[in-house]
């Protein structure tokens, strides 16, 4: 993987989880909404990172052929 793709993966995770941490510490997210937000944030971050990695692998495979 290239450095740009690794940076994109790190930025995706940092933005999503940074927002969740901010919401948690500020008291904006409490109770059940806190749990729901963290679950959704984890799923979204994992999905986006998987899409980036899959596209990189497909591009590399197509380039080899």
Please, could you describe this protein's structure?
- With 65 residues, the protein is mainly α.
- The chain has one domain (3-64).
- The chain contains 2 helices and no strands.
- Helix 1 runs antiparallel to helix 2.
- The protein is elongated, with a radius of gyration of 15 Å.
- The model has no long low-confidence stretch (mean pLDDT 92).
Low-confidence stretches: none
Backbone structural class: mainly alpha
Number of strands: 0
- Strand/helix succession: HH
Instruction: Let me know the average pLDDT.
Output: 92
Features:
elongated; mainly alpha; single chain; 88% helix; 2 helices; 65 residues
Give a brief outline of the structure:
With 65 residues, this protein is an all-alpha fold.
How would the blueprint of this fold be written?
Elements: H1 3-25, H2 31-64
Helix pairs in contact: 1-2
